[in-house]
Amino acid sequence: MATGTDGLAGRFFPEHAFSTSRTGGRLPAGQGIGTLRDSRANAENQVLNEVGTSMKTFMAKPGEVEQRWVLVDATNRRVGRLASEIAMMLMGKHRPTYTPHVDTGDHVVVINAEKVEFSGKKWEQKVYRWYTGYMGLRSETAEHRRERRPELILEEAVRRMLPKNRLGRVMLDKLKVYAGPEHPHQAQQPEPVQLGA
Question: Helix-strand-coil percent breakdown of the chain, rounded to 5?
Fold first, then answer.
């Protein structure tokens, strides 16, 4: 009844379910294509049940994943590379329990945001534009923004790397950026991490 092949296929798959060579290319009497398909599906299910290789995809539920607090020092880090690593932590893609529709990320506290770097001449050439609701666009260079609100440079870079929906806004709320070395989150005891190392 079993084929001469080794392994699971030889043990569990009936020969007539896959081969028509014994009947000269014709199906056995009383068996149509649907019957062959059903017998093959039954044989495959039998193999999965006996071997135990049935797997289920893990989907986290809200509040099920413990969210940590991490501390990141932005001194002498490139804005884009640092922002992409922070966005991954906010979304939770750094852990195997990542679920796209659930907030599984960590809280990220960034210090020394005024010491981030751009490559090339981006401090003079990069222009941020935004619309206030009145006529015309407001704009400023990256250098002017560093003097005015340095934490906004990193916040905007991270915001644009997150999902553009309600879940993305919840993730962005977990980002705390500070221009200097001090932050008010000592009670949460954020653990320092070295991103990209």
Answer: 40, 15, 45
Confidence of residue 5 (pLDDT cuts 50, 70, 90): very low
Amino acid at 196: G
Strand partners, 78: 117
Specify the DSSP element, H or E, that contains 40. helix 33-51
Query: Residue 139: beta bridge partners?
Result: 129
Helices assigned H by DSSP within 105-164: 122-125, 142-148, 151-159
Domain residue ranges of the chain, discontinuous segments joined by +:
8-51, 69-192
Tokens of residue 14, six digits: 């009936």
Return d(Cα 42, Cα 38) in angstroms, integer.
6
Q: What digits encode the pLDDT tens for the residues 50-63?
A: 655 657 888 999 88
CATH architecture observed for domain 69-192 = Alpha-Beta Complex (3.90)
